[in-house]
């Protein structure tokens, strides 16, 4: 990996691999150090404007999982009062039909690949907490995938085509397609996940979540499964460097 100049965490980009270089304020250094968060820790900063949850929904073809971003950009016309709201704003048990999306054609195509088309009925089953999908990637080793990224991987397990987020543990899974917008697909490719890649889900774990008080929050997730909500002032005291992960090659023999 190549490195760039140091940044304070509050100035760091979203969805990019970062490495903590220093925590300047002693109180924060001690408090975060007790959780294993300190120099050398590999993290990703999450977009604080998207503090929404991944959702599990049911359509006419069965249940699927949609990432928080997909839920925010999917508009549902509710049964009953007739409101049109983002899917993520529905309550468990509410029903409606798919009105459309506020995103690109790539997003609409991803929904269709999951079995959802305009005017299809939809029911929100539940909102999912932050989870880690501990995954064995053939030839690369162990990965931790978020619940949103696991939902973007469509593949074959046995005789069934399903999302990786819905596959059973310890079953062989071959990637068929990566769903979503180009930047989300590229993030998975940088992890070495392509069509024809073979994965094996080892375990699904709840993330360790720690929230600190403060009006403005920075959200980060670490490589070892720690999910932090930090006040802006703490972010200004944490210096990180951006790690540029090369795009891993597509497995040989892939189309």
TrEMBL record:
One of its GO terms (molecular function) is transition metal ion binding. It comes from the Bacteria. InterPro entries: Fe-transptr_FeoA-like, FeoA_core_dom. Coiled coil: none annotated. Residues 7-78, 85-157, 164-242 form the Ferrous iron transporter FeoA-like domain. This is Fe2+ transport system protein FeoA. The lineage of its organism: Bacteria, Pseudomonadati, Thermodesulfobacteriota, Desulfuromonadia, Desulfuromonadales.
């Amino acid at each position: 990996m190549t490195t760039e100049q140091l940044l304070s965490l509050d100035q760091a980009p979203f969805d990019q691999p970062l490495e903590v270089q220093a925590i300047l304020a002693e109180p924060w250094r001690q408090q975060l150090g007790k959780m294993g968060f300190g120099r050398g820790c590999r993290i990703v900063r999450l977009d604080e404007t998207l503090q929404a949850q991944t959702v599990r929904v049911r359509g006419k073809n069965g249940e699927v999982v949609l990432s928080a971003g997909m839920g925010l950009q999917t508009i549902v016309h509710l049964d009953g009062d007739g409101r049109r709201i983002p899917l993520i704003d529905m309550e468990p048990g509410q029903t409606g039909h798919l009105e459309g999306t506020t995103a690109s054609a790539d997003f609409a195509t991803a929904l269709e690949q999951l079995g959802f088309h305009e005017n299809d009925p939809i029911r929100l089953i539940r909102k999912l907490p932050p989870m880690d999908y501990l995954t064995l990637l053939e030839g690369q080793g162990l990965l931790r995938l978020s619940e949103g990224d696991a939902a973007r991987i469509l593949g074959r397990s046995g005789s069934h085509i399903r999302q990786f987020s819905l596959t059973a543990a310890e079953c062989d899974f071959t990637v068929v397609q990566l769903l979503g917008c180009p930047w989300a697909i590229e993030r998975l490719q940088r992890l070495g996940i392509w069509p024809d890649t073979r994965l094996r889900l080892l375990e699904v774990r709840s993330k360790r979540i720690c929230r600190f008080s403060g009006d403005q929050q920075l959200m980060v997730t670490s490589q070892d499964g720690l999910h932090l909500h930090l006040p802006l002032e703490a972010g200004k005291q944490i210096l990180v460097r951006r790690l540029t992960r090369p795009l891993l090659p597509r497995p040989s023999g892939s189309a």
